[in-house]
What we know:
- The protein is α+β, with helices and mostly antiparallel strands.
- 36% of the residues lie in helices and 14% in strands.
- It has helices at residues 4-16, 70-73, 76-84, 105-114, 169-174, 203-218, 224-239, 247-259, 264-278; strands at residues 21-25, 29-30, 87-90, 97-102, 119-122, 127-132, 138-142, 145-148, 154-155, 165-166.
- The strands form two sheets. Strands 4, 5, 6, 7, 8 and 10 form a six-stranded mixed sheet that branches. A four-stranded antiparallel sheet has the order 2-1-3-9.
- The radius of gyration is 20 Å and the shape is globular.
Amino acid sequence: xxxxxxxxxxALELAxxxxxxxxxxxxxxxxxxxRTCAQNACGGRPNMKTAGPCWCPxxxxxxxxxxTDPQVLTSRPWLRAWRQAVAVAYxxxxxxxxxVDLDDAAxxxxxxxxxxxxxxxxxxxxxxxxxxxxxxxxxAVRPGIDIKSTMAYARWLGSGxxxxxxxxxxxxxLAVKEPCVVRPAVVTVPxxxxxxxxPHRTPAxxxxxxxxAEERISEASxxxxxxxxxxxxxxxxTHGRCGCxxxxxxxxxxxxxxxxxxxPRHCTDAWTNARTTLGV
Length: 280
């Protein structure tokens, strides 16, 4: 609870500067929709390009909940969220910005060679480069590089160093180039003892489970990283120990995740982390 004044104070400072913030819960993901808005039953918010307005007072709808209105940020539903929040995020597009998320050392090195200087913010593994200008968000535009602007959120990690400069054409071009054709990483799943069939489920049950997992990933409208990880975890918790999963099943899950913008490395990391968590 002691962190609540800090995250709220940061949010209010951002709002005053014209940067719309939102709270992040454990796992550094936005708060889920309330019961009234679950499964977008409310019709969504106007700036989410969905039918019908949603004036829910809670911080629903991920990035679309971000606001610069201090009365909203300090309202009772939001205060409950701030008490549980572990970090602050913001909507770059709402601030008129585009964030180039360079997620590892190789991506940072490429950025230093290819991109014009601008404000940079250190992240856990790389850097955020912030430009003045808005464009559509796009994941995995290059290995280890995501673009976050409209309909996306970025974690607030401080004001960084340097001056924000104009969004260059090279960044815009990254989002419109033909995507690279990648092969899903091959993950070897131990075969079961015996005839190679799941001892407690039928093949039809496995096929239905994989199809449902693909659908869950494909329908994710926010927090894609977290959705992919939770889906991998669910599949492995049911079938990871019996050995009925094949490389073809895993490839289908990876393909669904990559279709949502996840990089092959993110897919491999999520799968590995899920296996480690479950001990399979």
